[in-house]
């Protein structure tokens, strides 16, 4: 809930009219996302915000263990950064980061 920790990336990382965003509890790193049945999906975009301190984040897409694409962005606590990649036919999305927790909002997947 964006009102829980005012002035942090938790508040500033929520996009649009909603008040909820996802985060990585206990600073899990990397964050691995797969479909439960292992099938492919399209990953279009996500907004990333640093929860507590400025850092960098790398978003990578894989298909059958092969790298489809990867991008690294600098993220801060004051405003979300759009990672817009439009990777078709991946079966594994990995988000890694260089410091503590990150906030993620408006994931756009097509399954």
What topology does this entry show?
Elements: H1 9-12, E1 22-23, E2 31-33, E3 41-50, E4 55-63, E5 66-75, E6 81-90, E7 92-97, E8 102-110
Antiparallel strand pairs: 1-8, 2-7, 3-6, 3-8, 4-5, 4-7
Quaternary state of this entry equals single chain
User: Based on CA inertia axes, which overall geometry fits?
Assistant: globular
Structural class, judged by helices and strands? mainly beta
Helix and strand pattern: HEEEEEEEE
Distance between the termini: 27 Å
Structure description:
It is a single chain. The protein is mainly beta and 111 residues long. Helix content is 4%, strand content 53%. The protein has 1 helix and 8 strands; from the N terminus they run αββββββββ. The protein has one helix spanning 9-12; strands spanning 22-23, 31-33, 41-50, 55-63, 66-75, 81-90, 92-97, 102-110. The strands form 2 sheets. The chain has a 4-stranded antiparallel beta sheet with strand order 1-8-3-6. A 4-stranded antiparallel beta sheet has the order 2-7-4-5, with no helix packed on it. The protein is globular and about 40 Å long. The two termini are 27 Å apart.
């Amino acid at each position: 809930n964006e009102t829980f920790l005012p002035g942090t990336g938790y508040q500033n990382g929520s996009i649009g009219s909603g008040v909820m965003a996802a985060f990585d509890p206990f600073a899990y790193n990397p964050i691995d996302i797969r479909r439960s049945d292992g099938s492919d999906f399209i990953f279009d975009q996500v907004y990333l915000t640093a929860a507590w301190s400025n850092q960098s984040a790398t978003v990578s897409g894989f298909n059958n263990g092969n790298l489809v694409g990867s991008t690294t962005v600098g993220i801060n606590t004051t405003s979300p950064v759009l990672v817009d990649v439009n990777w078709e036919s991946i079966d594994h999305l990995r988000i890694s980061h260089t410091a503590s927790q990150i906030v993620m909002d408006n994931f756009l997947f097509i399954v």
